[in-house]
Amino acid sequence: MAAIPEAVLSDDSIRFYRVALSILKEAEVPALVGGAYAYARYTGVYPNGSTNRDEFELGLNYIIDGHNARISLMYQYGDIATKGLNYSPDASGNEVSAIKLGIQLQI
User: How far apart are CA 37 and CA 21, in angstroms?
Assistant: First the structure.
């Protein structure tokens, strides 16, 4: 998600909420190591003098090697990406859907 400029945050003109819930389940298949966890996330941005924007996300992360390797599959729906940082009174954007696949590797 794009960073919100400090000037917007410093004058109490915007409220930002993020709520997440996740559940970790260890792998029960001997050939698989690690564990999988499903999560749900809601992000809402409520600026004064502009239209609200929000995003819902459902995902599944498979942890392969602790914090060193992870595969993620997620579904996102909302208008945060299309409204962006346009905080004018007539800001508009479509609600869009996306399915994303991500891989995280740390060495």
Answer: 10
In angstroms, what CA-CA distances link 32 with 4, 36, 56? Answer: 40, 10, 30
Cβ proximity of 61 and 72 under 8 Å: yes
Separation CA 25–CA 37 (nearest Å): 6
Using only the alpha carbons of the chain, give its radius of gyration.
17
Q: What is the distance between the alpha carbons of residues 1 and 107, in angstroms, rounded to a whole number?
A: 25
In sequence order, what are the beta bridge partners of 26?
35
pTM attached to this predicted model: 0.69
Q: What is the pLDDT of residues 14-59, one digit of tens each?
A: 677 777 777 666 655 555 567 788 888 998 888 888 888 899 999 9
CA angle centred on 106, ends 101 and 107, rounded to 5°:
145
- β-strand partners of 97: 77
Helices H / strands E in the chain, number of each: 2, 5
